[in-house]
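Exam prep: given the inputs below (a chain plus 2-acetamido-2-deoxy-beta-D-glucopyranose), describe the expected output before reading on.
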Amino acid sequence: MANYLRKCIWVALVASSLFIISQFWLMRTYEDYEILFEDIKVPVILWWTPFTGNQGRLENCGQVKCYFTQNRNFVSHNLLSTILFYGSSIEFEDLPLPRRGSIDWGLLHEESPRNIPTLTSETALSLFNHSATFSRFSDVPLTLVDLDSEEDLIGTKYFVSLEKKNRLIREKQLAPFLYIQSNCETASMRDLYIKELMQYISIDSYGACLNNKKLPESLKRDHVSSLKDSEFLSLTSQYKFTLAFENAVCDDYITEKLWRPLMVGSVPVYYGSPSFKDWLPNKNSAVSVRDFAGPKELANFLLLLATDESRYREYISHKISRNLNERITNPRLRNALRNRDKSVPNEFGNYVQSFECLVCQRSFDNANSYIVNKEHYNCPLPVNPLTNTVDRSNFWVDEFIVGRCKAKLLAQLVLRNISIDRESFHQQLLTFNPERDC
Ligand SMILES: *[C@@H]1O[C@H](CO)[C@@H](O)[C@H](O)[C@H]1NC(C)=O
Ligand SMILES: *[C@@H]1O[C@H](CO)[C@@H](O)[C@H](O)[C@H]1NC(C)=O
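Solution:
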């Protein structure tokens, strides 16, 4: 009994002291917030989706200054100018509605629409005024965010000679083709294509998808997700070719799947952005899956290329050209890499900062014609890569179509200037007939 009492007293003591501490803490943050709120005399830019740390920050952007915060209390600040969203975290039933007419919205998203199919609808895009996306046409393009430098493309740190690759095939029984993927149910239906390709050519598949080879002990799963992991780069470098299939097909959505093999001199066999050749080091630096009628035709070509040494060397000229200046001949890529501000590391965070400053600077001009459109985020309804037609057995097609419904509902809410809770959002969504209405 005494034991029990002692326990009770302890619990009461701990609870009351926690309560007192929390009250102090609340008071403090409330005070800070009050002071700040009143003191802010510059445009306020609010991250609606928590993104860049809790502290509010005054930032200089060239000649002007803005206050950046993710404290939603600022939604009522009279100097609020723009609300920013990170694509993957947007919840369409949790938006700052009603939207005041003078408040801009900005969209940041380097990813494919995997986490937010609604963005594939132009109706949804046009709610935003400013964009930083994978598209070269967005306001702050993130197209090359995964590619650090020219040196990464032309450097030979990881490069394995053709002679050695041939030896690895002969002596270590490596296949000429590498595939590593752990996300198997994708909008692009890549596994469907690769499965058929496997009937014609020999592919080492280390990942969870279509697995036929054990990942080396030294290469734990987490290595595979990192672009610059040296073990992963070394593994890739041993292969003549790497199957580089994106999880979704969007214009300019190009990821490390393309850059990694290019960086080590394994020839990418690429499926993804239809215009990806615009960013290759040279005319022949990758094989485009789209150039072939199907897996069989592609396989025939690859089998020839794998054994035609002089032709294969053309595909790795960014590694072996004697003249260093001729290793990258594509002016678009060369200029994009050379014209980068070298004082700012090529890190995602720095792109975020550029976007924040663009939005800040725009909040000082009086233009009212900034509207995001399809060019900034162009991901058509997914097709089956074997037939090039929309395939209803692909559940992503439905995801995209329901996404369109959400976009439509959302646009109506914004237009009618009404706010809505989660439950009503979903109820109203049910009144749409996706086939007919979206
Ligand atoms: C921002 O986008 C909204 C919705 O499309 C539009 O009504 C508004 O005029 C735009 N604002 C500016 C400053 O372009
Ligand atoms: C939208 O609603 C808000 C809050 O209910 C109101 O202050 C604002 O005037 C409305 N705007 C329009 C254009 O109706």
